[in-house]
Fold this protein.
Amino acid sequence: MSVKDKTLSILENNKGIYISGENLAKELLVSRNAIWKAIKSLKNDGYNISSVNNKGYCLSPDTDILSSQSISKYLNRDINYFNIKVYKTINSTNSAIKELAINGEKEGTVIIAEEQTEGRGRFGRKFYSPKKTGIYMSILLRPQIHSSKAFLITTATAVAVAEAIESISNKKAKIKWVNDIYCDNKKVCGILTEASFDFESGIIDHALLGIGINVKPPEEGFTEGIKDIATSIFDNKNSASSDIRSRLIAEVLTRFWSYYKNIENKSFLEEYKSRSILINKEINILSKNSSEKAVAIEIDDDCRLKVKMEDGSIRLLSSGEVSIRI
Ligand code: ATP
Ligand code: BTN
């Protein structure tokens, strides 16, 4: 870690508290001039750091800039596992992590962006990713499981995100099969898992787990196309603490990791089913060329959606094939 990164780490862990340049220099075993340079560079990056003679430096408690330091302070036991990289703006965190995966980067690398210019969902759909108000993150995974079980990654994540949302807000989080999280009957989060596997064995080489969460209302509102179906966890930007996105990221990573370690146990499946909003609802099943009405009956242990069609026949839907509209 550079002096700048270490300085930020100390300031993040002591937000709102003054620390003298001398103490920073002593702790990091560098000169006071090196600390001064690090502070100058952090200020250039937009950090609000006040400098007061005889007191030292203090990072404003209002700081709302994502960094690996702002997130790591909320991660405890798995802190060493994740290698978190944060970008101001990126096309898509899933695209960026794909490049790393192809170049052999190890499991646990996480790319997070303050904004995405080409955020995407399933079937090439767009995921609106405006700056400062959401979480756009992708995790590189190398699970040694068969590709037919890739859906478990999405399912475990949906439960981890729903639980994480409830741990930092007073909202109830529900799951719309298979990859969306809803609060107040609107979508707050979408999950996109893309996997590459060995053709002969069928074993996954790498999986790119992308998670997009609307945390606060976007400054310019939701776009016309999604304003009736999308919402954010917090209704107003002042009702959430400044570091809420960092806390939520840490909650998601910690919960996801505990499920992922033993993913084939499916310990999250009952929770997934109990949070489902589709059961007993009339739904529209969209596939490439058709739209059919049905009633959702249940989610089975392979996470397929059992539905009753209008003609009374029963079908089991797999996540990769269809989209559901309520
Ligand atoms: P399904 O998962 O059943 O295929 P879906 O509508 O959730 O349906 P996805 O591809 O998973 O489809 O997600 C992309 C869709 O999410 C977009 O077509 C748009 O309707 C919606 N969307 C885009 N950006 C956001 C956002 N920031 N918040 C909530 N919803 C969004
Ligand atoms: C969905 O809406 O159902 C899936 C959307 C997934 C969005 C996330 S944001 C981080 C990652 N990067 C992307 O381009 N997409 C995913």
In short: The first strand starts at residue 49 and ends at 52. The chain has eight helices and 14 strands.
